Amino acid sequence: MNEVESQFSDQSEGVHEDPRELSTRQKVRQFFFRIVALFIVLGLVYISGIYQATFFRKTPQTIEQTPVSALLDSDLINLPLRVIIVRSDGELGSSRSGENVLHLIEQASTIWDQANINLTVKEIAEFEVDDSAISNYFLEPRAFIRSLPGYTSGVVHVVLTRSLGGLNGVSYGAMNTIGIADFTTAYDFRTLAHEIGHVLGLEHVEPDTGQLMFQGANGFTLTLDEVIRARKAAARFL
């Protein structure tokens, strides 16, 4: 082999890829495409409503909260609630009855017994709107809430709709307003008690699923520090 042929041969050999490197690249590429495909499938499942139908349920009224004892020897604080049932002639309005609403509040209040805070219903109001208005609620919640007659800063507003776009509940702390869905993955009264915690300044906690402020579970316990902070925040409604 002459010198030119030798150089050409060396250069040609230099561009050959190691089969092991090629295999690794293929594996990485396949893994990436599988992740993308998984997200696409999950998105389609969510959009189709299968996710909601599979994991979200109405809480049976036969389920009741286990009684809890107060962590402090303190005076009872009554936290005033204004419950707003948003109805519609479409699919997004709440189907809760007055009896169901009272059960929701009573069981959530039982959870807050450990802080000696009593959830007191001052009013149950019903408003009929169309589905487009409820859809706007998901996009512009503050504008929707303020559009409902009777809004005031002196109570905690509890807005009830059929769903919240995949959430169990949501808190708009600055507006003293909570949204609760009819269909939830955790007990609805536990969801309400959890969102009350946010209105009273409590944050999410980890990793104890038995705690009230753990997200998306059926925990209901509060720490002494949480009780003290919640009571201080609740006192502004007196």
Helices and strands, with pairings:
Elements: H1 3-14, H2 19-48, H3 50-55, E1 77-87, H4 98-111, E2 117-128, H5 131-139, H6 141-147, E3 156-161, E4 169-172, E5 177-181, H7 188-199, H8 224-234
Parallel strand pairs: 1-2, 1-3, 3-5
Antiparallel strand pairs: 4-5
Structure in words:
The protein has 238 residues and is an alpha/beta fold. It has two domains: 24-55; 58-237, Collagenase (Catalytic Domain). Helix content is 42%, strand content 16%. The protein contains eight helices and five strands; from the N terminus they run αααβαβααβββαα. Strands 2-1-3-5-4 form a five-stranded mixed sheet, with helices on one face. Helix 4 (98-111) packs across helix 7. The longest helix is centred in the first third of the chain and has 30 residues, at 19-48. The radius of gyration is 27 Å and the shape is globular. It starts with a helix and ends with a helix. Mean pLDDT is 86; it is low at 4-15 and 44-49. GO terms for molecular function: metallopeptidase activity. Residues 1-12 have a biased composition (Polar residues).
The named CATH superfamily of the largest domain: Collagenase (Catalytic Domain)
Total E-strand runs:
5
Q: Tell me the domain tally.
A: 2
Radius of gyration: 27 Å
CATH topology (fold) name of the largest domain: Collagenase (Catalytic Domain)
Which class of secondary structure composition applies to the elements?
A: alpha/beta
Largest sheet: 5 strands, mixed
* CATH-scheme architecture of the largest domain: 3-Layer(aba) Sandwich
Task: List low-confidence stretches.
Answer: 4-15, 44-49
Question: Please, how many helices?
Answer: 8
Q: Under the CATH scheme, which class of the largest domain?
A: Alpha Beta
**What proportion of the residues form beta strands (DSSP E)?**
15-25%
Cα separation of the termini: 98 Å
Task: Tell me, briefly, the overall form.
Answer: globular
Largest sheet, spatial ordering of strands: 2-1-3-5-4
Region (Disordered): 1-20
Biased composition (Polar residues): 1-12
Keywords: Membrane, Transmembrane, Transmembrane helix
GO molecular function: metallopeptidase activity
